[in-house]
Amino acid sequence: MSDATRHVVVVGAGPAGLAAARAAASVGARVTLLDAADGLGGQYWLHLPAERPARREGLLHHRWATFVELDAVLRAHPDVTVLPSAQVWSLERLDSGVRLNVLVGEPDGAAREALALQPDALVLATGAHDRTLPFPGWELPGVYSAGAAQALAKGERVAVGRRVVVAGAGPFLLPVASSLLRTGADVVGVHEAGRLGSLARGWLDRPLALAWAAGKAGELAGYVRDLVRHRVPWRPGEAVVAAHGDGRVEAVTVARLDERWAPVTGTERQVEADAVCVSHGFTPRLELAVAAGCDLTPSRFVVVDETQATSVPGVWAAGEVTGIGGADAALAEGTVAGTAAAGGDTGTGAARAAGRARTRAHGFAARIEAAHGIRGGWTGWLRDDTVVCRCEETTYGRVREVVELTGSHEPRSVKLTSRAGLGPCQARMCGRTLQELLADPAAAGDGAPGAAPTMDRRPFVVPVRLGDLTALPDPPTTIPRTSGDRT
Fold it and tell me: Are 418 and 460 in contact, with CB atoms under 8 Å apart?
């Protein structure tokens, strides 16, 4: 058992964060769980507000019983403080560890409470967000990331349109289409960029190794039933390569792709739609990990060891910030990370079982990448007038022009000259794409971003009002040692 005074802070309350908080508390640590949302569960268990609950919430989520159990245990635990609507806006490195600067309250509200936390151990479970490759017209109203569309469908029961096209790559397209159908939207097609050959090679390699994933097969069957029931076509080897409309989306152009994801000339066709939901995988939320100084892999995930420890002493990471592996991997990694952060033994009990589950889940994640990973030929659907940074309306042609004029492929130089990545989202949407294009356009998307510096270094993790900064107490208020749910 660890020292009960050991303070573990967990950032992120999705599957990884919830599992880490429970594991750390079970070992005997004092735990503070932070999440920017106003409820627990992350994007995976994004549910309706308490004032508008679903009659049978469990029907809308996979593994809902797991969330209910985690939520109940953490809120009732005497040594766990749950802080929703808690935004970590910066992380400082100190000689004795790290300090998290937090604002608690509604993001648009005034007089948010300021906290400064200096934990004995930090678990980063910040998750990931959709990656959307640019295409002509993707800046039109009516073009959504698939994650945003699912968040509206699951969290608000709102359909993003009447006739919706779902496109991109990866298994996430199927639950998004299913969620849209449940809101009453007419999903006119699901277009998967991966061709059948790539999908087969990725998923059917060593088929016996998939025996443990029977639950995943059940989920897949449920999504397929939804598509069949509503007669939604699933078309592999296709992509939305342009969106059209006067003031908003009215139609999209769909084209066949070759093995490298380059559009096949002559296969283009238009599909009428008033919304398109696009996802080409996920990008980890690395701001806090980069601020802490954590080492990253060449594919831009946090490097961890067998205990989920990062390269920075006192900092652990779990979930999709370490690799895109789904909820099973996140739960397992969170359990290992929470146990280790609290000073527990990861070689026994629940942590040992979680370690075995993590190994299996990582194999599943490798299959996803092999089957659905982005190929470099997608740049063939870009035009010089294609917007690549929607915040600043910077076009692909402008980026190319800046590179030619300056002779520099360095992201900071290109950002300052072209303004790409300098808008309100601070390159969250376009950063990975710009980084890959600048590093090696011919290899963009093949997990080879070259030596280009990261675009995830943001001293301010999120926009903060000047009024919030001027009102910060000196020193900032810290969470009292007495714990409990502050929701």
Answer: no
Query: Which domain CATH number covers 251?
Result: 3.50.50.60
Structure-token pair, residue 221:
């069957």
Residue by residue, DSSP assigns 357-410 as HHHHHHHHHHHHHHHH---GGGGGG--TT-EEETTTTEEHHHHHHHHHHH----
Angle between helix 326-341 and 349-372 (nearest 10): 140
Mean pLDDT in order along the chain per 10 residues (487 residues): 74 96 95 92 76 64 83 93 93 91 83 89 94 95 93 84 96 93 94 92 67 63 91 96 96 97 97 96 92 90 95 96 88 95 90 85 79 91 94 93 87 87 84 81 41 66 81 67 47
For the entire predicted model, the pTM comes to 0.87
- Backbone dihedral region for residue 308 (phi beyond 0: left; psi -120 to 50: alpha; all else: beta): left
Q: Which two tokens stand for residue 325?
A: 């592996």
| C-alpha distances in Å from residue 435, one per residue of 415, 429, 430 | 10, 12, 9
Please state whether the peptide bond connecting residue 475 to the residue before it is cis, i.e. omega within 30 degrees of 0.
yes
Q: Which domain holds residue 413?
A: 382-443
Of 280, 315, 335, which marks where a domain is finished? 280
